[in-house]
Fold this protein.
Amino acid sequence: MANKPVEIVELAGNAGVYKANLGTSNFLVRSFMAGLFIAVGAALCTVCGTGVEKTLGPGFKALVGGAVFPVGLIAIVLTGMSLFTGDTMLIPMAVFQKKTTWDKVFNAWFWVYIGKFVGSIFWAYLMVVGPLTKGGGPELTVFGQNAVAIAEAKTLPYIATGTLGLWSAFMKGIACNLLVNVAILLAFASKNMIGKFFGIWFPIMAFVASGFEHSVANMYFIPTGIMLGANVSWAQFVQWNLIPVTLGNIVGGFIFIGAVYFYSFKKELSSMSPT
């Protein structure tokens, strides 16, 4: 059994109300765990994708990464943690349904963004002193070498093309969070664990395999590479990836899913009894 589309939108709004009313400490704890879980999926991409391109080609490498990355969002959704990219859709959806206010949206976004950054950096450090280096020393494992290559690939091409690079990162951010929030809506569609699992897995696999940009995942990918000696500075990471990708993620979740789905079912929502 599955919820009807209009019921999915209503459930998303209800979830947004719940998230909007969490306290600051709760925002930070839940988003810390969400950042950590996304980093777990990103670390799996790094490890499982190492060496695949040389033997099976770049397409299969992308598929492998897409297959393992969704573990992060599955853990977040099914255990009730708070992910910034999901909250760009859920909490505004509550505003559209007149269940909360815009000041609560921006307050939630601010604290969740901070918490997820800390969670991602924590897991990045754990990986750097763990599987990505030999005994925690300066010598990199093959997985560490791949982590450096990923960090540089997510930054240097944007720098090389200037304004076009910023636009590319922004657009990839839109596409990514459009699919992330489709996954969240599909999780609301299902009434059982298996349905939620596959509803999340397929759209997340699609965004990763397609090569789109997720701000939370990049808080793991690029800092990990920087810690390992990648030819990328923290300032370059923020300017050429984090800022444009975050803005793209906001547009993808807020407008392309939140606003579009509310508009599509506005009439049906207005006729439904309050829950």
Remarks:
- Residues 115 and 122 are 11 Å apart (CA to CA).
